[in-house]
Specification:
The complex is a heterodimer. Chain A is mainly alpha-helical. Chain A has helices at 2-19, 22-25, 43-56, 66-73, 88-91, 102-120, 132-157, 183-188, 196-213, 226-239, 243-257, 267-272, 298-302, 324-330, 340-343, 395-407, 416-427, 438-445, 448-462, 469-475, 502-506; strands at residues 33-35, 78-80, 279-283, 320-322, 332-334, 349-352, 361-363, 373-375, 390-394. Classes of the chains: A mainly alpha, B mainly beta.
Chain lengths: 517, 1019
Amino acid sequence: MKKIFSKYIVVAGLIAVLVSGCEKQLEIAPRQSIDATDALTSRDAIEATLVGIYARLKNARIYGRDMITHPEALSDNGFATNKSGRLLPEANNNQGAHFTTTIWTSYFAGINQINLVLEALPTLTLSPAITQIERDRWEGQLYFLRGLMFFDMMRVYAYIPGAVVAAQDKGGVPLSLIGISTAEAALAYKPIRDPIDAVYTQIVADLTQAEAKLLYPGLGVNLANKAAAQGLLARVSLYKKDYTAARSWADKCIATAGSKMTTASTYVANWRAATHGETLFQVAFATNGENIGVNESLQTSFTTLVTPGNQANTGGFGDLVPTLTLLADLGITLTGGMTTANFGLNHTIASRSTDVRNLLYEPGTAGRGNIKTECTKYIGKNGFINLDNVPVFRISEAYLIRAEAQITPGSTVFNAGEALADMQFLKTRRYTDYAGSAQQAADNAMDAVQLYAEILRQRRIEFAFEGHRFFDLKRLGKDVVKSPHYNTVAFTDTRILAPIPQAEVDGNTNLKQNAGY
Amino acid sequence: MRKVLLLVIGQLFLLSGILAQEKTVTGKVTDESGSPVANVSVIVKGTKIGTMTKADGSFVINIPSTATTLVFSSVSYETQNVTIGTSSIIEVKLKPTNNPLNEVVVVGFTTTRKKRDEAGAISSVRANQLENLPNLSVDKALQGKAAGVQVQANNGIPGGGINVRIRGGSSILAGVDPLYVVDGVQMNTRSDANFSESNPLSFLNPDDIESIDIIKDAATAAIYGSTAANGVVLITTKKGRAGKTKFTANYYTGSVMPIKYLDVVNGPEYFQLRSEAYGTTLNLLPTDLVVKRTVLNELRFPGASSYTVTQADSAIATIPTYDWQQAAIQNGRISNYELSASGGNEKSTFRVSANYTDQSTIVTKADFKRYGLKLDLTNKATDRLSFGLSTSFSSFEQRVPFAVSGSFLGSPAFSASGIIPTNPIFNPDGSYYGTPGNTPANIVGVLNQNIIQVNAFNSGFQRTNQLVGNFNAEYKIFNWLSVKGFAGIDYRDLNGKRVSDSRTADAFNRKGLVQLEHDYNTNINTFATLNFNRSFGENHKVDGFVGYEFRKENQVNTTMSGDGFPTFQFIYLSNAANPLAVGEAFTGFRRNALFTNVNYAFKEKYLVGVVFRYDGSSRFGSGFRYGTFSGIKTAWNIDRESFLVDSKVISSMRLRLSYGQTGNDQIGNFDGLGLYGGAGVYNNQPGIGYSQLENPNLKWEQTTTANFGIDFGFFNSRINGSIELYNKKTEDLLLNQPLQQTTGFSSITTNIGRLRNRGIEVTLGGDIFKAKRPGDFNWNVNLTFAYNNQEVTELYGGYKVLPSDVSIRVGEPVGVLFTQKFAGISPATGRPMWYDSLGNLTYSVLAKDRVVIGPTRLSPYTGGVRSLFKYKGITLDLFFQGEYGRWATDGQVNFLYENIGRINELQYIYDHRWTTPGQMTSVARFNANGTESKGSGAQSGNRMWFKADYIRLKNVLISYDLPAKWISKAKITNARIYVQATNLLTFSDWYSYDIEFVNTSTGIIPQTKNVTAGIQLGF
């Protein structure tokens, strides 16, 4: 009996030993992530978090592709070749074919990150202590990025002040300005869409803060800088029809940036360099590891060519090409005439005007179907096929903003003479023979209405395939006239606004979906 | 864990003790043919005194003088009671059993129980149902063999992934895979492969399997608590048996063939379709010269832009047709070689086996070669101490296809059927047509790569080395109490490489691309149990076990890639001009638990069992790591009651009732933590970002199952079967609760919602013609049928629909099809129409027009019928399997269903397209823009969803056992030749390759039809 008893003790002891340390056995931590609670406690972490926010801009649904392709496809600039099938629904303005929800989801994640860093900075003590220069550099970039993100979302999902279809206006986007870092806060957050004007006020406030804190050239054009903030403020002001501010910020931008304008002889070469000389801010793709690839990069979207002028080597798909009306504005005439039937066949160019900007359009390869005239603004400039920096603001826009602000009917700073001067400043740098030409004489003879139209036309040419056209038509409340390729989309049509993510609406009764979805 | 092992082993040696006996009886046990039977248990009735027969069938037992009866029992024989007379020598002949209730089932942690004693719902599949099937892994072989077990294919790649669902799966977010346990080792079933499919169960040759027990009810499965909510599949491999060493050799070989080719249009028909498409967009007749020029120009007729009518028409007359499917999809081969030896004596047994399998499929560069070795040893060191080793090592090598799935232009599986048929495959000189750097540099159409060239030039492999094994030891403290120790490992090391050749379109401009992957996974299982089995008098019996287990898994994955190679011959990264990307990732989890299973039987009539488990998982919030799972089960063996015991009709009958809980922690390893992770790079700097919100309240998902079962046998078990009814409720459903994206986060993993599965399972078998003597005609039929009804019963916050996923709706099964209803083609315009929310016809659908259509993930009705004919040595085995009630779509063929003509089209589309006003048909008019202006895409709504009902002749086997008199001279004990075919016939209206697929099957390599012939020898 004693022996049996001792066996029980041994067995019980065995189990006791096994069970002790149970909790400890379950300890395991992830190794390529860190605990969120002490993440933002070093210089490196602040810098790396900033990098993470910039990196969002590269997404193919944002500046990696859609923010550039869709304003062309949805407007009258882009014709979809159906070579891969991409961008066809957008060019056809199919119901629901629009900017996707990624802009919303990625930008709000970026904005929350910005809010958290902005909240952490005032109480953050580091050794050595944070200097004012550092603080301004960080905060300047954070405000710049938040302003840009809100502005892009407003362009995509909401009407622009002064061009609103009141019956279909469901507001702007939620102004999320407080950082969220707990499940409780996240689950409780059910925002409304703030009024359009309130969001624009915030955008101006953010960019103004950024402008005050940032330097020029600062950290270069791949990152936020003072001139870029001024340029963006000029653009935002033009969008919201604050012409006084638009002129004033354009003035400051031009003054800060200095003589960045290229000339007719250097214009094309600048589009072949990794960074265009006129760039004040661009979304940079530094290494080939960041390549978006053969399906969705800007190069593949716009051209089948691998290198300019070499029709023997096919690279991408060339899914979106200039429409007949854009070709006409660019001064390009096709062999066989500017008809849709001829447009459907292989393109060769019969003649070009003296506008150097049309040299960035040329016949592509036969490798993906019929040859079309394609845009080569993105042609693997960074040294690898499909790898291109994406300009967001070029200095020429400051001149065109200032011209438009002073020629728009009813402008508070109406001044046709200065508008003409800015336009001619641009034109002498874009036409090889502008000085003394018949065109110059005609420009000089224009009345204010004609001049306004010509400035807008110059804007279409200057920024074609750079992601402006749809937004320009939208802010002016104009119908999208897509003949002869597609049907016209009236400004009152619900397809002018992108849908906000349906899951957001389904999960929050405070939030209203845009009309028509 | 070393501590545990040492302790267990130490205990085994420390403890000893022998009990004294009195009188000696010896004897021999044989079967009907007179061959000795080993391992028969010989027990003095009413006591625990017993022994086992040795390899020669002999036994020696010391019995008390009061003993009157000896009970002889063994797994596959009927139990016999023999009265002890005056003689001290007893000879016994055992009859083979045909009552399935006498079989033994595994109930967890390597403990086995007699089915008659077990009250849980356990389905078993035996070796003879698995043998020689040309399946590389056992999961595929389970299809239709056990009621309520659904097997679906992801892919036809040899060695492809697992998709087994038991009773419908019980979760939404958390995994729905069952737990696989091989000889006690809980397997990791994640596939970590990037370049080809990888099936973690393909390490095991199905022919090495002795039996598979599938635990379906929660009360029994609760012993595995955390991982058992989706059922447990317990696999027991073949082991050695005492006796003369037996050898078996097995070889089969055969062909792998496509189930079907898709019927696509020829060159002239394609031209017609494309002309109609352009006609619509250009608003011209398809016969207009402008249209003809446009299409001929697209098909690269030189100078087509300026053709006259006559020139165009003569060009059209010369449009050729090439069959790319025939070029890309060919027959494959399958060969399998096996050799095993097993035997031993009463002290030690062993089994060694080796196998080599080589299987290719219908698309080359996707194949599978396995080299497998298996060793099983047991030893009885003393009367009380025994230990064993069971190991399986296999190395498999797969060449990698272009892609496992997806719409990749260069992928033969995707593009073969869609390439525009006017494209030649070869140039007249035999070189590949339309390749980069040549003229033309590609072929016509969206699918512009010469896939035959791409497939020939690309290369790559995936090599997996896998070791699964365990060491186990058992020490009998008393005759009724033993302690067991177990340490198991499942180690997997996977190397993969993919080379995109610089001569192919995808890598031409980047001068070659090489990607590497290395992945290793270490999964350690250990447990210790205390097993008891004791009778108290005649009437009371208690058995069961109590134990502790620990499991840990670590996985590390590294990847790297580079491009820019000097020439196509250089395919090693050292030669790459541009290193592109490197990656390294770690993940892992820990689990531990205390568990017990106690069973009590009264007079072998009334059974009750209790299972309890205290379970910990590292995946949950710190306050919720431990969960408690328990179950109770009862059974009433009615056939033991006096009123049935002598029945001529009812040979067995029992009722079972069980109720229990299991848990589910199959979520991401770190889903509950607040994390900052890598967030890309920008401007040559690395970024980080807030990647996940913390949820400290994350806890176990719990599934409670009530199960009622009845087992029956009639006419001396000539007919037998079982019926199960169950109701399975899942609470605290793990779900990604969507957050407002404006918070900066998309979702948080949390417990919200309820799900219910309920259903019925019927298994019925019997001899329709029963042989009177061995060798006479015998026809046996076995049928399984299951109906499962799944329903989401509650979602958080009172939502009726999950805001981020409309396929998760209260009152409907998970993954229900919720979309607009297709209303056909307008006879007037040829445009597709749908029903809007008011039931009116519309060209353009809105979100509010969506309605519930039906289930898409799992068919509610499934079943299988196995029909086995035997006459003399000839066996004919037919196995049919089917499903009913699911909707499915097929991404691959949906491309061939477009009304655009940008790629080739199905003949069906050509035959049914709308061309003239007034035409009633089902296919919209062609339109080069794809979608009509102000209309929805032609494939919107449920247009491309079809009923996925089918019956398939899954397997046919004809075998012949050579008569003993022919082969005995050659010292061969058995010889069988056989021919086997799988997927021979399918009855269904399915429009694509294979109905069995789940998910969108775009670009997958489909399942195949296999015919094999083989020979099996034993000596």
